[in-house]
Amino acid sequence: MAKILDGKVFAKNLRDELKGIVSILREEYGNVPGLAVVLVGDNPASEVYVRNKGIQTKECGMRSYEHKLASTVQQDDLLKVIKQLNDDPEVDGILVQLPLPNHIDSQKVLDSIDPEKDVDGFHIINAGRLATGGDALVPCTPLGCLLLLKDHFDELTGKNVVVIGRSNIVGKPMAALLLRESCTVTIAHSKSNNLEEICQRADILIAAVGKPEMITKDFIKKGAVVLDVGINRIAAPEKGPGKMKLVGDVAFHEAKNRVEAITPVPGGIGPMTIAVLLRNTIQAACNRRAWKCDL
Ligand code: GUN
Fold first, then answer.
1. Is the pTM of this model over 0.85?
2. Cα separations (Å) of 64 from 11, 198, 235?
3. Mean pLDDT of 256-279
4. Alpha carbons 168 and 176: distance in angstroms, whole number
5. N or C: which end of the chain has fewer CB within 10 A?
6. Are the C-beta atoms of residues 79 and 112 closer than 8 Å to each other?
7. Structural domains of the chain in order of their starting residue, each with its CATH number
8. Which of helix, strand or coil describes residue 139?
9. Does 222 qualify as catalytic in the annotation?
């Protein structure tokens, strides 16, 4: 039977561990890390994410700051808010919730964040540090995948990994992290020739391509470990007219009979990202403040 890798349990355990670290920091240094989240506009999904980030930050014992700006905010005014947060010594991490409204240049905004406070790891300096093997703040989703893999495997060295997807948020940083672990890494994508054959060679298959249930059992080597990063909302007529459901990039029900372990959707990688964001915030605080901590 395949092991179902439960992201909710993993996230809860990680948050408990982080809570312990934060309480040690409070005792040792008389302060705790602070995370500022900037939300522009009133996208309901973003509002839920931001609320959950605030709740979990405080539950971990850290300081949480929220900045809500109207969807009509001018780019310069948003940049001013970020500058204030960059200059505020009590703010260790800054996250600008995406997507931003169309009139704003998202990359310019992300690159205005102090790289030492860039807990999303989206700044070009952090992307460059990761790509060149330096100390970087790393995007939360691929870092969560790595933590899960390190928990599952005694050793990652030499494993054949196929990452499907080449985004700056998941595919590319995922590949860089696994190279750092001495894996043999292939980055494939929706336009790769012979994708099925490439995937069949993978000891570890990471799907981040954004195509609902595209990875069927024929893509998967027997006994592989499969991480499904996709979150796709599709029609679910079986639930009733107009109903929707979430599925991953992997056809879970057929894949689970072939794999050693697999993450479900929902309940796999998705629930882990906020816990990893909190971990990044602690890391940023310890780096900035020269605090010692055991991450
Ligand atoms: N919107 C959805 N996911 C994310 C994320 O990981 N970071 C940011 N900044 N915005 C998001």
1. yes
2. 19, 44, 37
3. 98
4. 11
5. N
6. yes
7. 30-115 (3.40.50.10860), 140-271 (3.40.50.720)
8. coil
9. no
Find the catalytic residue in 92, 97, 172, 249.
97
Q: Which atom of ligand 1 is nearest to the CA of 99?
A: 1
pLDDT digits (tens, 9 = 90+) for 193-224: 999 999 999 999 999 999 999 999 999 999 99
Q: Distance, CA 240 to ligand 1 centroid (Å)?
A: 31
In the structure encoding, which two tokens stand for residue 187, read together? 């980055």
Residues with CB under 6 A from ligand 1: 95-98, 120, 140, 273
Q: Does pLDDT of 1 surpass 90?
A: no
Amino acid identity of 190? S
Cα of 276 vs centre of ligand 1, distance in Å, is: 12
Residue owning tokens 């010594």: 89
Task: Report the nearest-CA residue for atom 4 of ligand 1.
Answer: 98
- 293 CA to centre of ligand 1 in angstroms: 26
DSSP lists the bridge partners of residue 9 as none
Q: How far is CA 90 from the centre of its chain?
A: 24
Mutate to test the pocket of ligand 1, among 120, 145, 278 (most ligand atoms within 8 A of CB): 120
**Residues, the chain, total?**
295
Q: Which of 130, 88, 91, 127 is CA-nearest to residue 111?
A: 127
Say whether 97 is catalytic: yes
Bond preceding residue 212 cis, omega within 30 of 0: no
